[in-house]
C-alpha cells in the first residue's frame, strides 16, 4: 500500500487538474441551455476512459442524454465489476448565494467548491484516478471493470431505465457486482457502506379557482381562494409529528428490527451538531424514531416548491386564479409508488373544497432498496475501507435516492456495493457545494484498495 499512497501523493496535482477540468463543464441536466454541456461531459468521459485508462469506451445515444459505456478485457477466473455514476449535476441556482463561480472549482480551507464537486463528479473521479494509479503500478487490472455513466440521474434516469429493458443491453452490462459511489461516508475518517436507499415519488398539484385573478375586496369571503385550498390540502397530508395522514399510506411499510435499530444506533451521528450545521433549533419527525431512523428507514413528505399569486414588490390585493405545489414522498422498500398515487388522489378528492378544480400529476418514481450485507463483494469492500481508514465501515441506510440502483440490481442480478466518500455537510444540491480534499484523496486510495480486494476474490468462471 505504501507505493500506492506515494504514487497518489506524487500525482495530486494531476488528479486535481483532471477533476477540475470536468467540473468546469456545467452539465446541468434539468436545463435545456446546458444540453451541449451535458454532451461535452459525456465526450470528456469517453476520451478519458479510452486515452487515460485504455478502456474500450463509447457514447451510447438515447432519446435524451447519452450514456457512457466502457470496459476493460474480461479476465479468466476473476469477477466483473460494473461502476455506475452520473455525470449530470443539479442546477446551481440561486447564483447569488455562491461565494464563488459555481462552475469554477476553487480550493478554500482544504475543500473544493463547485457544483458537482461531490455529486457525483468528485465521487466517480476518485475511481478514475484510482484506476489510473492501479494501472501505473501494476500495468493491468485484476478484474474486469465496466463503467456505465448516465447524464440524467438528477431528473429521473429515464434513458438508462429504458436501456435496461433490452436483453442485449443487460448482457452488455452483465457483472458480478455493482459499485456505486454516490452516497456519504459516516463522517470525516469514518467510512460507510450504504445498504439502504429510499425511493422517491414526485407530484405536482395545481388548484384552479376563478378564471382570472380577482380583486380580493370585491370578491373576498365569497370565492374559495385556491391558495388557501392548497395550503389546507397540503397541510392535511402530514401531522405535527411527521405522520403522513393519507389512508393506507403505511400499510406496506416494514418495521425496523431490533437488530437493525441497534446497528443504526452505533453511528456517531450527533443531532446537536446536525442542528447547528443547518441552522435549526429543533428537529422534526416521528418521536418514536431517531433522526437516522427517520431519514433512512421511514417515509417522508416534503413540499419542494409553492407558487401562487403575486410575488413581486409591494402588495397586490387579489384572489389568485390558481395555486400549485411540487412535492415528494420519500418511500421505503416494499412501498409501491402506484398505490401511493392512487391513495393520494382519493385523499385529495375527498378533501377538495367545492369551487376549486384539481389537477394532480406525478412523475414515474422509484422504489427504495435494502441490500443484504452478507455477499463477498461487500466483505471485500469492507476490507478495502478498513485498510485505508484503519477502522471497519459503518453499515448505513441513507435517506437519499438513486433511482436506477434498485433496477440495476434487479435486472443484472448483481450484488450492490455502495461506497460513498461524501459528507452530509458537503451541500449537495445547495449553493457552495464542496468536497473535502481529504474525501477525494481518501476516495482515490479506497478505489485502489477496492480493485486489489476484488482481485483477491475466489472466482471460477
Ligand atoms: N447522490 C444523490 C443521492 C444521495 C445523496 C444518496 C446522499 C445518499 C446520500 C443523488 O444524486 C440524488 O440527488 N438523487 C435524487 C434523485 C431524484 C432527483 C430523483 C434525490 O435523492 O433527490
Ligand atoms: Mn448523486
Ligand atoms: Mn443529486
Model description:
- The protein is an alpha+beta fold.
- It has 2 domains: 2-197 and 368-455, Aminopeptidase, CATH 3.40.630; 199-253 and 299-362, Alpha-Beta Plaits, CATH 3.30.70.360.
- It has helices at 2-10, 12-23, 35-51, 121-138, 158-163, 167-172, 216-219, 226-236, 258-265, 271-278, 291-297, 337-351, 376-389, 403-412, 437-455; strands at residues 56-60, 67-71, 80-86, 106-108, 111-113, 144-150, 177-180, 192-197, 199-208, 214-215, 300-308, 318-319, 322-331, 357-362, 369-370, 394-398, 415-419, 434-436.
- The strands form 4 sheets. Strands 1, 2, 3, 6, 7, 8, 15, 16 and 17 form a 9-stranded mixed β-sheet that branches. A 4-stranded antiparallel β-sheet has the order 11-13-9-14, covered by helices on one side. A 3-stranded antiparallel β-sheet has the order 4-5-18.
- Helix 1 crosses helix 4 (121-138) and helix 13 crosses helix 15 (437-455).
- The chain is globular and about 80 Å long.
- The model has no long low-confidence stretch (mean pLDDT 97).
- The structure holds ligand BES and manganese (II) ion (2 copies).
- Residues 119-120, 153-154, 156, 182-184, 200, 398, 400-403 line the site of ligand BES.
- One manganese (II) ion binds next to loops.
Quick tags:
binds ligand BES, alpha+beta, Aminopeptidase, 461 residues, 15 helices, globular, Alpha-Beta Plaits, 2 domains, single chain, binds manganese (II) ion, four-stranded antiparallel sheet, 36% helix, nine-stranded mixed sheet
Amino acid at each position: 500500500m505504501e507505493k500506492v499512497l506515494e504514487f497518489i501523493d506524487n500525482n495530486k496535482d494531476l488528479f486535481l487538474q483532471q477533476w477540475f477540468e470536468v467540473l468546469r463543464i456545467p452539465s446541468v441536466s434539468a436545463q435545456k441551455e446546458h444540453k451541449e454541456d451535458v454532451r461535452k461531459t459525456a465526450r470528456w468521459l469517453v476520451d478519458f476512459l479510452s486515452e487515460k485508462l485504455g478502456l474500450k469506451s463509447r457514447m451510447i445515444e438515447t432519446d435524451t442524454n447519452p450514456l457512457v459505456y466502457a470496459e476493460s478485457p474480461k479476465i479468466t477466473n476473476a469477477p466483473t465489476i460494473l461502476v455506475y455514476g452520473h455525470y449530470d449535476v443539479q442546477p446551481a441556482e440561486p447564483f447569488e448565494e455562491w461565494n464563488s463561480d459555481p462552475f469554477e472549482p476553487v480550493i478554500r480551507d482544504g475543500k473544493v467548491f463547485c457544483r458537482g464537486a461531490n455529486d457525483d463528479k468528485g465521487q466517480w473521479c476518485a475511481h478514475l484516478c484510482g484506476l489510473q494509479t492501479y494501472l501505473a503500478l501494476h500495468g493491468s487490472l485484476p478484474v474486469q471493470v465496466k463503467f456505465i455513466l448516465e447524464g440524467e440521474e438528477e431528473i429521473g434516469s429515464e434513458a438508462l431505465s429504458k436501456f435496461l429493458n433490452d436483453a442485449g443491453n443487460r448482457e452488455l452490462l452483465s457483472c458480478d457486482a455493482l459499485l456505486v459511489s454516490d452516497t456519504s461516508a459516516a463522517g470525516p475518517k469514518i467510512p460507510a457502506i450504504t445498504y439502504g436507499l429510499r425511493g422517491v415519488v414526485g407530484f405536482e398539484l395545481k388548484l384552479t379557482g376563478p378564471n382570472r385573478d380577482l380583486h380580493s375586496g370585491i370578491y373576498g369571503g365569497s370565492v374559495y381562494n385556491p391558495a388557501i385550498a392548497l395550503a389546507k390540502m397540503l397541510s392535511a397530508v402530514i401531522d405535527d409529528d411527521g405522520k403522513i395522514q393519507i389512508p393506507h399510506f403505511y400499510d406496506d411499510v416494514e418495521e425496523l428490527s431490533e437488530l437493525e435499530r441497534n446497528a443504526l444506533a452505533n453511528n456517531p451521528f450527533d443531532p446537536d451538531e446536525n442542528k447547528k450545521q443547518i441552522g435549526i433549533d429543533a428537529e422534526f419527525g416521528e418521536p418514536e424514531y431517531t433522526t437516522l431512523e427517520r431519514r433512512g428507514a421511514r417515509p417522508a413528505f416534503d413540499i419542494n416548491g409553492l407558487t401562487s399569486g403575486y410575488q413581486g414588490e409591494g402588495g397586490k390585493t387579489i384572489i389568485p386564479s390558481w395555486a400549485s405545489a411540487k412535492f415528494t414522498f420519500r418511500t421505503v422498500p416494499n412501498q409501491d409508488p402506484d398505490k401511493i398515487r392512487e391513495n393520494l388522489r382519493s385523499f385529495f378528492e375527498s378533501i377538495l373544497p367545492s369551487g376549486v378544480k384539481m389537477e394532480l400529476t406525478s412523475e414515474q418514481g422509484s422504489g427504495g432498496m435494502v441490500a443484504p450485507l452478507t455477499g463477498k463483494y461487500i466483505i471485500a469492500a469492507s476490507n478495502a475501507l478498513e485498510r485505508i481508514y484503519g477502522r471497519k465501515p459503518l453499515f448505513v441506510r441513507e435517506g437519499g435516492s438513486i433511482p436506477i440502483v434498485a433496477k440495476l440490481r434487479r435486472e443484472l442480478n448483481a450484488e450492490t456495493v455502495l461506497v460513498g466518500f461524501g459528507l452530509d455537510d458537503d451541500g449537495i444540491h445547495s449553493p457552495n457545494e464542496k468536497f473535502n480534499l481529504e474525501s477525494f484523496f481518501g476516495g482515490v486510495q479506497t478505489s485502489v484498495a477496492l480493485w486489489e480486494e476484488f482481485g483477491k476474490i475466489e472466482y471460477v468462471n
